[in-house]
Amino acid sequence: MTIQSEPVLELRNINKSYGSVKALTDVSFKAFAGEVIGLVGDNGAGKSSLIKTISGAHNPDSGEMIVDGVARHWKSPHDSMMAGIETLYQDSGLAPDLTIGSNIFLGRELEKKGILGKFGFLDQKSMERRALDELEKVGITVPLSRRTVSQLSGGQRQAVAVGRAAMWAKHVIILDEPTNHLGARQSLEVLKVITAARDQGLCVLFISHTLPHVLEVTDRIIVLRLGRVVKDAPTTEFTVESLLGTITGLNT
Amino acid sequence: MSTETNTEIPVSTPSTASVFRLMLTRFRRGDSGMIPIVIGLIVLGAYFQIRSSVFLSTGNLTNLMVQATIFVLLGIAEVWLLLLGEIDLSAGFNAGLAGAIATILVDTQFHWSWYFAVGLALIASTAFGALWGFLVIGLRLPSFIVTLAGQLGLEGLVLWIVDSQGTGGSISIHEPVLYNIVYGNFTPLFTIIFIVGTVLALSFSLIRKNASRASRNLESVPMPLMLIRIVGLIIGGAVMIWIFDSNRGKFTPIHGMPFAIMIVGVVLGACTFIMNKTKPGRYIYAIGGNAEAARRSGIAVNRYRLMAFMMTGLISGIAGLVYVSNLNGISDSINGGTLVLYAVAAAVIGGTSLFGGRGKMVHALIGGVVIATIYNGMALIQLGAPQQYIATALVLLGAVTIDSLARRGSTIVK
């Protein structure tokens, strides 16, 4: 793990209100390439508001967001994707009836060269080859690439979804509860892909209620409570109990 | 990275045995779809042949295929929308409208050239498809209701324009091009050239695709399976040539493939091509399977939904032209409501899901031929409409039951 001096993502004093409800208050943190950051907090602590701000689903009322050294304002989630931030929402966001390769390139298809490409003809073999190669980089081997996603287990599906985010993200991937609804073994598959994505030099924001997973996979944990960052410390400083205490506010 | 740490999505090199195993698991999961129905078709064919010796005569088989064209074309039209989890209940009367427009414009007092008449008919059916699309997408109305209203409205429109010609509620076709869609045949030589050419082109593209996949180290089809497919294609082609090029005339000799069969082949080929090889096809599968994921991937979801509605309209229009040619005209007793239900049944019997995402254009062909077989065979053994309806009902129920039971045992979560 290499932590560079320049953060790939920095938030400065982000504020966000919904009507009279203050969702985020002066949220600031830095995130570096090659680290997995756990973002934890109770329901209503502001996790969703924060990831929506970073992914461009909505705009903060005030505050600055700096991505790779450049101050950014998103007009849509598409802008954040273009700037190298991939977000994976709770349901995996894959099309069940398309093959793994087709899903990896969904919305970013390679077209055939020349006139055929202009008519929307796809270069399927190049896409499939590249998809397999890129998935391999994050530790997913797909011998039967023409399987549809519906034929995979929940863990494999989520691993492919994380692999897809890792392939397209230049800087940050945001994972919202990626191990929700998964069994222990299946979660392990997903956590492995997360570690592999970090080793590729990406910054991973890992949002989860499953505290053992957070402690296992993250390098640093940011705890939100009532819209504020109450703690930002290396994972080694936490145990499940102390983390739970910080989330609920029993110990500060 | 060593393989132990990898998340392995199982099954290793695709040997012939493993591909067969995969086919077996797919079969159990209900993904094979077509295999049981093809077996069912053979059983049906054998039964009808035992009961009536003319069933497998080349004349009757040609007749059966012509009867199937309307179900297959309307079925293809429906698959476009079924893949999105939508439906078009108006397709039957949209076909009727296109048929009526073309018939009236080439005959009666207008005497238009057939290409203008056909062009206008197809524009009209496409426009109605687009209208349903706008209502469903723009106003977020359910397609079932919009096209149910469309069915009633188009029925009224068809009756109105047919009856207003003052020909007693039916208009027959005298114009040769429209008449010959069904009753005109290619020469036997061209039939052979067309079928042999199709078989060669399909075999060549199978081989080429497989070789290029293998050269990029992608999953490819093992040689024995490849041979089975190609031999299957050749046998299929030979049977088609035998059926079409044998004399089927009673008094004067009749040879060759009816034009309507080629129309079905071209429409089926084009639609399959769009679905498998192009962006719009891939996006329609994506939207039908998970519209939210498609939207998040940056796909202009509504544009492709509208396109599907328009394609349904266009292909319904083509079906209508074949329909009026087959009936030698249009009458105000056309039952577009039953036609569209047969079309949906054809797609579903073939294996297309009503819930979006799962299905193929070729399902309409398989299902349409099944329905035409029941229709044709039961007429031959002198069973009437009541038995035909009941038999079709049983086949449809059987097909969806097999599909749904197979899927319940699978891991597929919709």
Summarize the structure.
The complex is a heterodimer of chains A (252) and B (414). Chain A is α/β, with parallel strands linked by helices. Chain A has 9 helices and 11 strands.
Task: List the topology elements.
The complex is a heterodimer of chains A (252) and B (414).
Chain A (H helix, E strand, L loop, with lengths): L8 E10 L2 E11 L4 E6 L5 H9 L6 E6 L2 E2 L5 H6 L2 E4 L11 H5 L10 H4 L5 H14 L2 E2 L12 H15 L3 E5 L7 H16 L3 E5 L3 H7 L2 E6 L2 E7 L5 H9 L4
Chain B lengths: L6 E2 L7 H14 L4 H18 L6 H25 L8 H16 L7 H25 L4 H21 L6 E3 L3 H8 L4 H28 L7 H23 L13 H19 L1 H11 L1 H6 L4 H27 L1 E3 L4 H15 L11 H19 L4 H24 L6
Structure, described:
The complex is a heterodimer of chains A (252) and B (414). With 252 residues, chain A is of the alpha/beta class. Helices cover 34% and strands 25% of the residues of chain A. Chain A contains 9 helices and 11 strands. Chain A has helices at residues 47-55, 77-82, 100-104, 115-118, 124-137, 154-168, 184-199, 211-217, 240-248; strands at 9-18, 21-31, 36-41, 62-67, 70-71, 85-88, 140-141, 172-176, 203-207, 220-225, 228-234. In chain A, the strands form 2 sheets. Chain A has a 6-stranded mixed beta sheet with strand order 6-8-9-3-10-11, with helices on both faces. In chain A, strand 1 (9-18) and strand 2 form a beta hairpin. Chain A is globular. Chain B has 2 domains: 35-183 and 258-397, Orthogonal Bundle (ABC transporter involved in vitamin B12 uptake, BtuC), CATH 1.10.3470; 185-255. Helices cover 72% and strands 2% of the residues of chain B. Chain B has helices at 16-29, 34-51, 58-82, 91-106, 114-138, 143-163, 176-183, 188-215, 223-245, 259-277, 279-289, 291-296, 301-327, 336-350, 362-380, 385-408, and strands spanning 7-8, 170-172, 329-331. In chain B, strands 2-3 form a two-stranded antiparallel sheet. In chain B, helix 5 runs antiparallel to helix 13. The longest helix of chain B is centred in the middle third of the chain and has 28 residues, at 188-215. The radius of gyration of chain B is 22 Å and the shape is globular. The two termini of chain B are 34 Å apart. Chains A and B meet through helix 2, helix 5, strand 7, helix 6 and helix 7 of A and strand 1, helix 11 and helix 12 of B.
